[in-house]
Amino acid sequence: GEAAAVVPPAPPRTADRLLADCTKASAQLALAECIHHSRPLLHLAMIWRRGQKSWAAWLVAFLLDRISLGLLQPHVRPRPETRASALEIAEVQRRKNLLWWALARSPMFDKILLRP
User: Is 105:61 a contact under the CB 8 Å cutoff?
Assistant: First the structure.
């Protein structure tokens, strides 16, 4: 008979590699993500209820951004020098930068940055 051809194993898929290298799931990370993704809806609901010039809506949105980042940042621990590491660190940095955009939301923008 014929000898069976030896087929080398397929290289790991990108998604499998990212999953293996990323920060492992935890309750704290899940809470941070829930807060982060619910912030726009909560902010919109408060604006709808209290108006666009509401300081309470602005403060709640800012605090939710800050709390979610505070929960997320200390628990991001991907495997160093990997694609997952670069992606996770970039996401934390992006969320830090988003905190500055709170200054562009009303009423903060109107009060501090808009010229009378």
Answer: yes
